[in-house]
Amino acid sequence: MLLERTNKQLKKIYKGIEKYCKDCDLCCFTYGWIMPCEESRYSKITNLISINKKVTCFDSFEENKFGGKCLEKIPRCKFYRSRKCKIHQIKPFDCLLYPVKVLYHPKKRRYSVVLSLDCPYIESLNKEDREYLKRQIVSFFSSMPEKIRKEYFSLVRDWEGITYRKEFESLEICSFSEDEIKLA
Fold first, then answer.
1. Angle between helices 127-143 and 2-13 (to 10 degrees)
2. Which of 36, 60, 82, 147 satisfies CB 3.0 to 4.6 Å to 78 for a cystine?
3. Per-residue pLDDT tens over the stretch 165-183
4. CB 59 within 8 Å of CB 65
């Protein structure tokens, strides 16, 4: 219930983004991260994989010649077919968050909340609308329920040490220390 309310807030913030998502083909290269509170929902519709017993994601990976998962290459999400998300109405929190990404900086013990500037939706916004969106995102993260915030930021921290970061043009909106998130 708490996650559904949080997801609803995001959908309201990004109202109208769907028309830019159609036929975009730029994103949805993702490991498909799943928060622990989402696992039961997605385990009913697909195979999930646990990496290092810390993080769970969709099993969209290519296999290497030994039959193991190829983590070096960021996979195309298994639910992205025919230039569309097949689970758009129920996609995971991390996917809903896009075009915002949260990046963890282990040496600084800080999280950066960034806006992906290569997203057609973001490109379509004029300066005033982009500033308004940034304020909404800051407000969203500042008021995010503690349980969801801790779970998501823990997931971000844990995947940072496992995976490869996709390079993309971004703009930092805000940042948080681990102490501010209260993960310690």
1. 170
2. 60
3. 677 889 999 999 998 887 6
4. no
As to burial, measured by CB atoms within 10 angstroms (0-12 exposed, 13-18 middle, 19+ buried), residue 92 is buried
Unique residue bearing structure tokens 């290092």: 52
- Could you tell me the CA-to-CA distances from 123 to 25, 46, 135, 168 in Å, in that order? 15, 33, 17, 14
pLDDT in tens, 35-79: 999 999 999 999 898 887 888 888 887 788 888 877 777 788 888
Strand (E) or helix (H) holding 174: strand 170-177
Distance CA 23, CA 130 (A): 22
> Can you tell me which residue has the tokens 């992205």?
80
**Separate counts of helices (H) and strands (E) for the chain:** 8, 8
| Dihedral angle sign, alpha carbons of residues 77, 171, 103, 10 | negative
Sequence ranges of the domains in the chain? 2-181
The rounded radius of gyration (Å) of the Cα atoms in the chain is 16
Instruction: Give the C-alpha separation, 28 to 178, whole Å.
Output: 28
pLDDT at 112: 96
Tokens 């990046």 belong to residue: 103
| Placement of tokens 């195979």 in the chain | 47
Paired tokens of 143: 């008021």
Amino acid (one-letter) located at 47: N
How far is residue 178's CA from residue 80's CA, in Å, rounded to a whole number? Answer: 33
